[in-house]
Amino acid sequence: METTPDAIPLLIHDELETPPLSLWQLAWRRFKRHRMAIFGTICLLAICAYSLGGALFYSEAYANYTETGLRLNSPSAAHPFGTDTVGRDILARTIYGGQISLLIGVTAMLVMVIIGVLIGAVSGYFGGKIDSLLMRFTEAVLIVPQIFLLLVIAKFFSGTIPDITLLGRTFSGSVVVIVLIIGATSWPYLARIVRAEFLSLKENEFILAARSTGTPTNQIIFKHILPNCMAPIIVAATLGVANAITLEAYISFLGLGVKPPTATWGNMLDGAHNYIETAYWLWLFPGLLITLIVLSINFIGDGLRDALDPRSRSV
Amino acid sequence: MTRYIIRRLLQGIPLLFIISVILFFLMQNLGDPVATMGGRNVTRSQDRERLTRQLGLDKPIYVQYIYWLIGNDWTKSDMDGDGIPETQGRRKGVFRGDFGTSLVNRGRPVTEVIWDRLPNTLLLMLTAEAVIIFGAVLIGIYSALHQYSLVDNTVTALTFALYSMPVFFFGLLGMYIFAVNFKQFGLPYLPTVGMFEPEAGKTTSQIAWHMILPVATLAFPFFATYSRYTRSSMLEVLSQDYIRTAKSKGLPRREVIFVHGLKNAALPLVTLIGLDLPILLGGAIVTERIFAWPGMGRLFLDHLSRSDTPVVMGILMLIAAAVIVFQIITDITYAWLDPRIRYD
Amino acid sequence: MRLTRAVVQYSKFEISMGHLLKVDNLVTKFHTPEGIVHAVNGVSFHVDDGETLAVVGESACGKTVTMLSILGLIPIPPGEISSGSALYTNRDLLQLSEDEIESIRGREIAMIFQDSMTSLNPVLTIGRQMTESLIVHLGFSHEKAVERAIEMLTAVGIPDAKNRLSEYPHQFSGGMRQRVMIAMALSCAPSLVIADEPTTALDVTIQSQIVELVIRFQEELGMSLIWITHDLGVVAGVADRVIVMYSGIILEEAVVDELYEAPLHPYTNALLAALPRIDQETHEPLLSIPGAPPNLLIKPKYCPFAPRCKYVRDICRQSIPPLEMVDVNHQVACWVNIETGELR
């Protein structure tokens, strides 16, 4: 038997493993494979096009135009979705309502993410008394069911709030209130997730390395640790949009949400159960739209979760 | 273990305090209950002043909070407006079980008002929970065992759709199909209002029949999450090494799945059930409104819109306490099921 | 030993003329989103009564998948056994129904897995996991099964066995758990035991204890043993015959002494040369095998070891060498005769 090492034999090209992919490329590949997520994306884009593009066909004044003589008309050529209890065209209202609902969804999500990430990061990174205190507070908010909290806070603000004009549209100031209170009651869920991530990530050696070279704390939190826990944050944010839209619908349905004449898909359903036998178009169309958009976002969120999950490294 | 329970209960108390303070503060701007007390007429200003004094609403917030907590029967307050406190208070405070009296149902103790409606809500929720656990879990197991089959894919799509539907939309749809349309086509239709027909009286069968739509509405959104969760939990468990060992020992398939598998897969479900109580309660509000079910959710809405602070606080504190206790029960159940967890 | 005589009573193996287990041309694939993984590419071997066969190879060379395929423990949707047969006392295991193979698993062919922590069910007691196969396969009553379980645990060297029956896997140390796995596998006195790297996860001192334990049982019960390992030192201590696997095919098969003295395959040669020896001069470099194992997504069309082989010729990159008998009790799959340097 020979014991001297010979020249290393050349590796044949096709023997090599497949070329490496970056994390985002991996995630995109996995996302593409998720048929429902792709379907959700297409659906969501379609709804956005409907809401934003529809504004080119119907004006907002038309959407709020009441004509009591035409009240409760069933769907017809002039009013494809019918008219509501004061004669407004439902189709136009769904278009403008969609804009508000989407706006509320996205901005409430932003509020939730900002508060949740901040509290979770501070709590997870610093630990100790700060953590205890913040977590007590978080638990307290979590214990009371979100809807109850929302209703109480909504009533708290139910005084007169001025109208707001933004991007060419005028709407009731209650929209801002709704956004803030949805965001202010949704953050605990995300805060917990972020805290858990921070608790485990801060033990890693690259953090120790950053600290030992004198990196300031806020840089460690925002530039070193935070980018590593983007995955659960992205998933939670996506699902948070759906959650916000649903919540807005709930409180509007219960009469404490956005006030008419500004339309949202939720407040179009207010009182609709009184007309269950006579005017199905009052609730069917807005309800369907809410379901569709929430469905799409849930599919996308599910796809994102699969795509970004570091455990499924199988590609 | 008993020490753990006591410790958790004690931990719950500061939480309840924080919650009560936050909520009490929020109550202050709920609107003016006195304004509606005149019935159809606007309350006259003298009456308004008198009522405000009588109800103790003229005191600063923290004093009101203290009275709420420990009552005011140890002090005197000024009832006749002359600036001199002379009337002994009659409230005992929350610590002694007195949640005050309703502002809307004048004079009725809050506890009585709530107790009137509480069982109805409990009935709905417990039935819904039972339906969820048995139905969704079985579906989840079936889906896990027949992954990617037609049934599995249909169930997945359906449950997603149901989960995405707002509760009231589902309720409205259910109403429309099973009540309105069935009625139109002459089929036996499900009732949509209340707990029982007034003529027929409050019998069990009446209640059961009236419960079908509300329970379905309340339970179905959870069907989605629970069946999907069970499915993925089962799938993960079934891919574990110890399942392979169980199979390699030649144990029959049913034993492998239901004993070796399910016992492990059920663990995260227990946690989920515990966390979902608040959401179930929230769904109850909406469901009760749609179907005019005389429960706590409707009570809450009615009294909130009329700014009846004592009743609203009572309901909220009750819910908070229930959630805390329920979470403790969930944790204990989890520890009982999973031998690796010991809470000492 | 009182135990072994009693257990032997239940042993079902008969003296047969042919091999106990004869595997012929087994091919197992896995369908993954990235393509087909060719895990086992035509493996043939046999095991006789009472002998110990060692299966040697690097990680992912197909040794575990081969054994799991034989017992039908490969999950069939991604997995596929596309051809081959596994004759156990003249019954083809690959053609049996689920019920039929369930009665063989654990009872006549048992498996010991590598990772005892994940291979034991964390939420079931050790007692339950020990007694269930006795009850299912041998029809023991609960009391009798418990009695037998205590005997088995004591026999594998676990003290205070009676009390440990009600404990859970996480309460045992690694070495103890492996002993429990062995006791579980042997409890129904199988004719064939497949041990998949049972000592790899253990400390060196415990390793030798476990090896001794298994050998002792084999001598007393007379069962056949397939020992999977990548540790050539263990092979020398336990095996009668050895097969060397690489990338899903068998490269060499020989009686153990023959393999160590005169390995005929360049891979075996390199493996043995890579073993650090205690009598090596300190300035001599440690040898390793350069390169990496091949990508199993590509169906092998030529010798999989060719890229790393010192003796490689043109024909090695053109077709797969067949496994051929070169000497008594010595087969090799190689185009080159490494002793002479010429083609065979």
Task: Summarize, please.
The complex is a heterotrimer of chains A (315), B (344) and C (344). Chain A is mainly α and 315 residues long.
Word description of this protein:
The complex is a heterotrimer of chains A (315), B (344) and C (344). Chain A is mostly helical and 315 residues long. Chain A has a domain at 104-281: Orthogonal Bundle (MetI-like fold). Chain A has helices at 23-33, 35-53, 60-63, 90-126, 128-143, 146-156, 174-201, 205-212, 217-225, 230-253, 281-308; strands at 164-166, 169-171. The two termini of chain A are 41 Å apart. In chain B, 36% of the residues are buried. The longest helix of chain B has 39 residues, at 253-291. Residues 1-16 of chain C have low confidence and may be disordered. Chain C starts with a helix and ends with a strand. Chain C folds into 2 domains: 20-95 and 240-277 and 284-344, P-loop containing nucleotide triphosphate hydrolases (Rossmann fold, 3-Layer(aba) Sandwich), CATH 3.40.50; 106-110 and 117-193 and 201-221, Rossmann fold, CATH 3.40.50.300. Classes of the chains: A mainly alpha (315), B mainly alpha (344), C alpha/beta (344). Chains in contact: A-B, A-C, B-C. Chains A and C meet through loops of A and helix 12 of C.
